[in-house]
Design goal:
β5, α4 and β6 form a beta-alpha-beta unit. The chain has four helices and six strands, in the order ββαββααβαβ. α2 runs parallel beside α4. The model has no long low-confidence stretch (mean pLDDT 87). It has 177 residues and is α/β, with parallel strands linked by helices.
Length: 177
């Protein structure tokens, strides 16, 4: 369950409204949609993990792109992305700061190694999770990691097993799938 911030402005729902990242309340907020009162945002770190589901052509990937764009705009999140189409879906972000495009299991293993290093950083700082660490050490923050996996059913079995382990274990070090 995620707490929601009240929308800011009143808008008409009769027509499509483009995503306006200047209305992003916080660097970690994700756009969900539009209400009569304005855009609706949810906090990345307010959830354990997020799953977008639905029929083909219903806008799931478009929502992923909106979330990636919002997080990159916020500039306070590392974004890792992998898809079942050889990462072609996310190629347009490859040159953006804080964005990491993943192509194979080896890169997923490298991400797991980064998460293990964060465990050691938390032990040294005496913090239980990155939220506590960042509050106690504002000059040495640990940025959250948003992990996007598109077409998860098409991932190799080895990647699925590793991904499942990472999702189960590494939330406290800042992994938000």
């Amino acid at each position: 369950q995620v707490g929601l911030k009240p929308p800011r402005a009143s808008v008409s729902l009769d027509e499509a409204v483009p995503l306006d990242l200047t209305q992003q309340p916080h660097p970690w907020d994700l756009p969900v949609g539009m209400t009569k009162e304005g855009p609706l945002w949810i906090p990345l770190m307010g959830g354990i993990s997020f799953l977008l589901g639905g029929s083909t052509g219903m806008g799931k990937t478009g929502e992923e792109h909106a979330w990636i764009q919002a997080l990159l705009h916020g500039g306070r999140t590392l974004v890792y992305a992998w898809d079942g189409k050889h990462s072609v879906e996310f190629l347009r972000y490859a040159d953006k700061p804080n964005f990491h495009l993943m192509f194979d299991v080896l890169e997923l293993e490298m991400l797991q190694s980064l998460l293990r290093d964060r465990e050691q950083q938390l032990v040294k700082s005496g913090s239980v999770n990155i939220l506590m660490h960042n509050e106690a050490h504002p000059d040495d923050p640990i940025l959250p990691i948003a992990l996007f996996v598109d077409e998860a059913a098409d991932l190799p079995d080895q990647a699925k097993v590793l991904l499942k382990q990472m999702i189960r274990i590494y939330r406290y070090v800042g992994l938000y799938p």
